[in-house]
Design brief:
six-stranded antiparallel β-sheet; 25 strands; globular; 14 helices; alpha/beta; binds alpha-D-galactopyranose; 549 residues; single chain
């Protein structure tokens, strides 16, 4: 396939092409084949909420951070230690600065001041890990109706966005989760609030030089997958797509007998599937994992990992890391399964077949050409055979190599399919490596060959691809582009006039070109779809061609 792309790329660039300043098509000197551009991966880490609720303090966080290292999770790629609700009880000083309980957050090393959150950040960083913090987009946070303990008000950042996010960055945090309890109570618009927050984060980053990863937690209200990608200019972010899988289970406290529900786990997985929004560093977040918590058996834990990995979900573990069973730890650290989640193409699985209700075939296209992660998912109450056909994966017939993703064991496959017996309410996770079926290449339509004078009149120069044929309702699309700047550029994708998403284009370096992947809904009944990329005249970004499968 690489050769084919190279040939087509050369033919696209060979003629002298009209050039103009904004997004568009320009002739570039270096006619190299586009190379794959890796995109930011879904975050991996731990959060205090599921197992400690509002009881979180420095002792708990230190023990969990140490366990992330000693368990081998850090080595497997987990990096964030995220402090969730309960760290702050709503107090501010006369200048509006957040004030925390010095007993919960004491000095941890000589020369430190109790009540300074940079102490715990330093400790976490000292272990080679990153630190996450939490607030709410409204005035009050979720502590106004707490899971455990007394009510606390004013634990939100509304009215203090600039101040609080700057404070988080100054403390040294690397990640911030922003909840929606207050925003929901005040009937605010999440798209508006989270855009303001993203801008406050960008400002804090510019002032401190410290990056804060943005985690949006509005439980899927107002469809964040439609506005989450690049909200407020964010270069990478995640957004929750549903409510919590389970309320906290805190050993020795009220509700310690709660159990995580397998049914809710599956429904969170379903609600997290929005493949058109998951690309170029933006991810749907079906909630923190409950793997290893009370309520799930070993098979369910393993399926949980498979579901989160195939959907490219953030892997934020909610269990008490000091108490993980060997099998839960093995699930969480299986390198092949983690590689599915962390694949550099950054796409989400798509359901490609459901031959009978509850018998499903999910496929995640991986960065390596011809490679797929496939989940044969049996949601019914009895064992069933489930078949995956190569053609539905976008692979040619022949005998692709099929392996069990967990063990690496080679499995004998047919010329056009593979069938496995899948136990009731369980799944079989596979790697399939074969040959891509040909992709159809489309060059930009002539309409965007704007002249310099038109450039002045029309600040936006959409790049259009006409008569794009749909093979499936969700098409996998490779976008070849150049972005010589060191910063990411962005473009809005419209399909048949409707906005689908915002796509990020990482730098491709001064010369040369790259490609990224998206998945877009196309109208399979239309004689030809129209795809349009537009931006606000972000200089330097050039889209060369798209290839559609
Ligand atoms: C909401 C979020 C949870 C957690 C709690 C804290 O329920 O969805 O992930 O942050 O708030 O109260």
């Amino acid at each position: 396939m690489r050769n084919r792309v190279r040939r087509i790329f050369a033919s696209v660039l060979a003629p002298a092409i009209v050039s103009f300043g904004c997004l568009g098509v320009v002739a570039i000197a270096a006619q190299t084949a586009p190379r794959p551009v890796p995109v930011p991966r879904p975050p991996m880490g731990w959060s205090s909420w599921n197992s400690f609720s509002n009881t979180v303090d420095a002792q708990i966080v230190m023990a969990q951070a140490r366990a992330m290292v000693s368990s081998g999770m850090r080595k497997a790629g987990y990096e964030y230690i995220n402090i969730d609700e309960g760290w702050w009880l709503g107090a501010r000083d006369s200048k509006g600065n957040i004030v925390v309980d010095p007993k919960a957050w004491p000095a941890l090393a000589a020369g430190e001041r109790a009540g300074d959150m940079s102490n715990i950040v330093r400790f976490i960083h000292g272990l080679g890990l990153k630190a996450g913090i939490y607030t709410d987009a409204g005035k009050n946070g979720c502590s106004m109706s707490p899971d455990l303990g007394p009510k606390y008000f004013h634990t939100g950042s509304e009215g203090h966005y600039q101040q609080d996010f700057l404070q988080f960055a100054k403390w040294g945090f690397d990640y911030v989760k922003v909840d929606w309890c207050g925003g929901y109570g005040e009937n605010l618009d999440p798209a508006v609030q989270y855009a303001q927050i993203a801008r406050a984060i960008a400002r804090a980053e510019a002032i401190t030089g410290h990056h804060l990863y943005f985690s949006i937690c509005d439980w899927g209200k107002n469809s964040p997958w439609t506005w989450g990608p690049n909200v407020g200019g964010s270069p990478a972010d995640i957004w929750r797509t549903s409510g919590d899988i389970v309320a906290p289970i805190v050993a020795g406290h009220e509700h310690a007998d709660r159990r995580a529900s397998f049914t809710k786990l599956l429904s969170n997985f379903d609600q997290g599937i929005h493949p058109e929004a998951e690309h170029t560093g933006y991810y749907n977040d079906p909630d923190m994992m409950v793997l290893g918590m009370p309520g799930l058996n070993d098979e369910q834990n393993r399926l949980h990992m498979a579901l989160w990995a195939i959907s490219g979900a953030p892997l934020i573990v909610g269990a008490d890391l000091t108490k993980l069973s060997p099998s839960a730890l093995a699930d969480l650290t299986n390198s092949a399964v983690l590689a599915i989640d962390q694949d550099p193409a950054g796409l989400q699985a798509v359901k490609i077949a459901e031959p009978q209700q509850g018998l499903q075939v999910w496929s995640k296209a991986l960065a390596q050409p011809g490679r797929r992660a496939v989940l044969l998912l049996n949601r019914t109450a009895s064992a069933h055979a489930i078949t995956v056909k190569w053609v539905t994966l976008g692979l040619t017939n022949g005998a692709p190599r099929v392996t069990d993703a967990w063990t690496g064991k080679h499995l004998r496959a047919g010329d056009d399919s593979y069938t496995a017996m899948v136990p009731a309410k369980d799944g079989v996770l596979l790697f399939v490596s074969g040959t891509e079926s040909p992709m159809t290449h489309y060059e930009p339509s002539g309409s965007q060959a704007a002249s310099a004078s038109r450039d002045a009149v029309l600040p936006q120069h959409p790049v259009r691809f006409m008569n794009v044929h749909a093979h499936a309702t969700i098409a996998r699309i490779q976008i070849a582009y150049s972005n010589p700047d060191s910063v990411r550029r962005y473009a809005t994708l419209r399909v048949n006039g409707e906005v689908v998403t915002r796509v990020a284009f990482p730098s491709t370096g001064k010369s040369g070109a790259g490609y990224i992947w998206i998945q877009s809904p196309l109208d399979a009944h239309s004689p030809g779809n129209e795809l349009e990329f537009s931006n606000n005249c972000e200089r330097g970004l050039v889209i060369h061609f798209i290839a559609v499968q």
